[in-house]
Design goal:
single chain, 361 residues, mainly alpha, disordered C terminus
Length: 361
């Protein structure tokens, strides 16, 4: 991690954390949250919270299996172990780089590119995986929203929030499909990016025309790989099944936290929990989202809208984000450092073999 990236991340995280603390102080009450913690059964808490951490890890594992199925369909043998590490590092990048919604995908493409000479197909697998994960989350939100509206009705504010979330997810899916299936659209994006990066290429003395050739070569591979999924419905179905399992396990993290603090009534609010989960995941991925603060405020507010006491909502939100945010940050940082050390240990200078050859001659 570069120093300026780390400093920017810490700055935004600090601002977001301060905003959330102020929200707790003025709208929830720190004293009320302390009372919730005081009433928690230590044995019950340790049991369910341990299950929460294990469930989070399993969620990332099935998320990785979903992507790995797509990679194997394109004859990219990354392996589940590497796919798991790459996905965790991708999530880590999404969490530490504010104002960017594709940083995780870029990290996965960069890492998986080392296992395959066909970068276009790697990008095709990542784009297809993004479409599948958004589709699964959107499907859950649609089902929960329709069921909730017809069963209980909904306020105008919540209805607008649901419609915006659904419309945003649907737009993302359609946009990705359009770019993936229309070569002309993708070509225009490539040309635009190369024009924007032309000054950088000149500065590093790299020919923009060579960059364009490489980009179009990868673009052909990308479209070929993506369109091949249309003939591999079993692979797509397998990836969707793994993605749905990952989605359900991630949702279970939210539910298990409420059980950990003794709020078993959450089992009667499954539909509401799906809505909170889907909206919070969407908020996490929007360009204006801070690493901390905004997601937590949205979650806590939604829980109170669904008649969960404010103190319990705030406490649960704090504990949920400890797993879905801080756990992924800590493990991701360790993995990033480990991969860096491993690359240094495995690195062999090319000059060694050349020198030996020259010496023998």
């Amino acid at each position: 991690m570069k120093k300026h990236t780390l400093a920017r991340t810490l700055a935004f995280s600090t601002v977001g954390l301060i905003v959330f603390i102020l929200y707790i102080y003025f709208f929830i009450g720190i004293g009320d949250m302390i009372e919730v913690f005081m009433r928690v059964d230590p044995y019950r808490y340790s049991l369910f919270y341990s299950a929460t951490i294990a469930t989070m890890i399993l969620s990332v594992l099935f998320y990785s299996m979903s992507w790995n199925a797509l990679l194997k369909a394109l004859s990219i043998n990354t392996g589940l172990k590497k796919a798991f590490i790459y996905c965790w590092l991708g999530n880590f990048a999404d969490l530490i780089v504010p104002f960017e919604t594709v940083s995780g995908e870029i990290v996965r493409v960069y890492l998986a590119r080392r296992d395959s000479l066909n970068s276009g197909k790697v990008i095709a697998s990542v784009v297809a995986h993004r479409i599948i994960t958004v589709f699964v989350t959107l499907s859950g939100l649609l089902f929960a929203s329709i069921f909730f509206i017809f069963r209980r009705g909904v306020t105008v504010e919540l209805l607008y929030l649901l419609l915006i979330t659904i419309a945003g997810s649907l737009t993302l899916i359609l946009l990705l499909l359009y770019v993936s299936l229309r070569e002309e659209a993708a070509g225009k994006i490539v040309d635009t990016l190369i024009k924007l990066m032309a000054p950088i290429f000149r500065r590093i003395r790299f020919d923009p025309s060579e960059a364009r050739k490489r980009a179009y070569r990868s673009l052909i591979q990308f479209h070929s790989g993506f369109k091949s999924f249309g003939e591999k419905w079993r692979v797509v179905a397998e990836s969707i099944a793994y993605s749905f399992t990952a989605w359900f396990l991630h949702l279970s993290v939210y539910l298990l936290v409420f059980y950990a603090i003794g709020f078993t009534e959450i089992s009667a609010k499954m539909i509401e929990s799906i809505i909170v989960y889907a909206i919070s995941v969407t908020v996490q991925s929007i360009p204006i989202a801070l690493p901390l603060g905004l997601v937590e405020i949205v979650m806590a507010n939604l829980y109170t809208v669904f008649a969960i006491p404010a103190a319990i909502s705030g406490t649960a939100t704090l504990l949920i984000r400890a797993v879905t945010f801080w756990l992924q940050i800590i493990v991701g940082y360790i993995l990033a450092q480990w991969i860096g050390v491993k690359e240094i240990m495995d690195w062999k200078p090319k000059e060694t073999s050349t020198c030996k050859k020259d010496f023998s001659t």
